[in-house]
Specification:
With 92 residues, this protein is an alpha+beta fold. The chain is 63% helix and 13% strand. The protein is globular, with a radius of gyration of 18 Å.
Amino acid sequence: MQDEKQNFGKDESLKHNTEQDQLSDYFKRLSAVIKDYPEVILFGPTNAKTELFNLLKEDKQFNNIKIEIETTDNLTENQMYAFVKEHFEKFG
């Protein structure tokens, strides 16, 4: 029974590390795109946008980019396009 608990803990730890590595890689790919824009809005229902925002703020190459975050519900693709268009018409 003890071995099963230890294996479960190792499996959970491995899963968590894999997910963190994937998220880190995703953030790096997003950062490479974001650096080419003067203004960016990060939005969505989860905390990932805040994690990415904090990561970007730590990197000096993003100092001249206006980055905003906004919490939204889960949006369809059409709703996302409308949200971004409205945001930049209103604030851009």
